[in-house]
Model the fold of this input.
Amino acid sequence: MRPIRFLRLRRAYKRVFAGNDGALVLGDLCEQGNLNAQVHMPGDPQETAFRDGQRRMALRILGFLNMSEADAQKLARQATIHEEESFDGE
Done:
């Protein structure tokens, strides 16, 4: 990937995932991407490949955001707390 395209994409990813909504979605993507779960499914190579693909996509997003898995999980927990507080206030 050309450096200019990479920088433009990185800025776009950061804008998309900024704020509480972005953090909430990022947390969901990390959860659905099996970042805290086993990817290998014994006896089921197709499910293993599918889960590995989900994980790779989540890791790609975190890479563009220059964020570790732990950072993403912390951000997602904070966004979930904020969302619950906002929902309770409605």
